[in-house]
Design goal:
Largest sheet: 9 strands, mixed
Bound molecules: fe (ii) ion
Helix content: 25-40%
Number of helices: 11
Strand order of the largest sheet: 6-5-4-3-2-16-17-18-19
Radius of gyration: 21 Å
CATH topology of the largest domain: Purple Acid Phosphatase, chain A, domain 2
Length: 423
């Protein structure tokens, strides 16, 4: 019997973050596919042991004790990893970029979001990490490369960051299957993505995707003394310093960072280290940046803030791409205070879980303006916000164009923010 969309969604409920659990779920998927294709009970039972238990044990041990895929960095094959933003329609000034995170789950919801992205036909599409369950080749295929996959490939570019789930299988399929399918268009030349980070830029803005996934999963035993901190590896630091030249004091373009892991979170772990490394490279302690991340399966707009020794950031979590969005409030008041807006609308209830809305973010760059439209899978614009960069000093001026009242927090009381219908 074909798996219903609800059954598939249920598999993701209460999904833990351990490698063992995610490997088990991948093996369960293989087993269920096998059951679908066989009718003999004896075959099913023997196959269970073959595809499920042994497969699980093998994948798990290989992942825990096997080597990670070699790190890939620029320059590579004459590629610097820095690309000029270009519209897919030469006469159009505006450039659009769809951001999706934690999307690759092959669910009815991820399909809906993928098809909605296609309707907007953005110039670029970026997956900000986590291919479920363990970033295995079949999972990359089902979400991105098979004829039935619902990933939309932007005409100007389609790029991917790694999350922790890709690294649960040592990043092998990320580097060997996903990156070869990703690209940027430079004039007439199509360049394949060579590493798990990149920079898209024009004269006003720089969109810098950083890799926090590779260092997000620990090694056995070592992780007890030194838990993974998502730090940027030295190859990436060198690239940011010498090729991107992120710390160039003359460069006052607006900076947007994309990462899988959260710089700030009111719900689970937040990672200070990549922010500290970026601040050290920036040098200028007054410089404000915009930072989008995923990992946490919800849509949250944080108050402008610093984490530890990191930069002052407009932080946005958009991990609501395709996994069930389980609605809950932060545990304490201190965490709640971090949040400016949070989409906690309930879309449906499944097995006593309140599930919210999946969606994506559409960025539009037009001159000094950067607009972010947060669209849910029903195409409601939940929020539209905008930044204007002053290129004389790098200052960002922020404003809200559109908001639905349900995402305001109880204490949200900001002048100039009106309620609207959101369509
Ligand atoms: Fe994640």
């Amino acid at each position: 019997m074909a798996e219903s969309s609800e059954q598939r969604t249920q598999k993701y409920l209460d999904l833990g973050h351990s490698e063992a659990e995610n490997h088990a779920k991948t093996q369960l998927e293989l087993y269920e596919k096998h059951v679908k294709n066989t009718s003999a009970v004896t075959n099913v039972i023997s196959s269970f042991f073959k595809t499920n238990l042994l497969g699980f044990a093998w994948h798990y041990l290989k992942s825990r004790f096997g080597p990670r895929h070699a790190y890939q960095a620029y320059p590579k094959n004459d590629d610097s990893g820095v690309y000029t933003l270009q519209s897919s329609i030469p006469s159009r000034e505006e450039i659009s970029i769809a951001l999706l995170s934690d999307w690759a789950s092959d669910t009815a919801e991820s399909d809906s979001v993928g098809h909605l992205v296609a309707r907007y036909a953005p110039d670029y599409t970026i997956h900000m990490g986590d291919v479920y369950f363990v970033g295995a080749p079949k999972e990359v295929e089902d979400n991105f490369t098979a004829p039935h996959a619902s990933w939309y490939y932007g005409a100007s570019g389609s790029l991917a960051l790694s999350g922790n789930h890709e690294m649960y299988s040592n990043g092998n399929a990320f580097f060997q299957h996903l990156l070869p399918a990703m690209y940027v268009q430079q004039g007439e030349v199509r360049k394949t993505q060579q590493a798990g980070f990149f920079c898209l830029e024009n004269e006003h803005w720089r969109i810098i995707g950083i890799d926090t996934g590779y260092t997000s999963v620990g090694r056995p035993f070592v992780e007890i003394i030194s838990p993974p901190d998502c730090h940027l590896k030295k190859e990436q630091i060198n690239w940011l310093r010498d090729i991107v030249r992120i710390g160039n004091p003359e460069d006052k373009r607006g900076i947007v960072i994309l990462s899988h892991h959260p710089y700030i979170s009111a719900f689970r772990e937040e990672y200070e280290k990549p922010g500290k490394q970026i601040q050290e490279l920036l040098g200028d302690s007054e410089r404000e940046i915009i930072w989008f991340w995923g990992h946490d399966h919800r849509l949250v707009v944080y108050n402008k803030a610093k984490n530890g020794k990191g930069p002052m950031a407009y932080g946005r979590c958009l991990g609501h791409g395709g996994l069930p969005v389980e609605i809950k409030m932060p545990d304490g008041e201190a965490d709640e205070q971090k949040i400016l807006f949070y989409d906690r609308r309930v879309r449906k209830i499944l097995k006593r879980h309140q599930l919210g809305y999946n969606g994506f973010v559409k960025l539009c760059i037009k001159g000094e303006n950067l607009t972010a439209e947060y669209r849910d899978l029903e195409d409601t614009c939940v929020l539209e916000e905008q930044w204007l960069v002053d290129k004389s000093n790098g200052h960002l001026e922020w404003s809200i164009n559109n908001i639905i009242p349900e995402i305001k927090m109880p204490r949200t009381d900001m002048p100039g923010i009106e309620n609207s219908s959101g369509k």
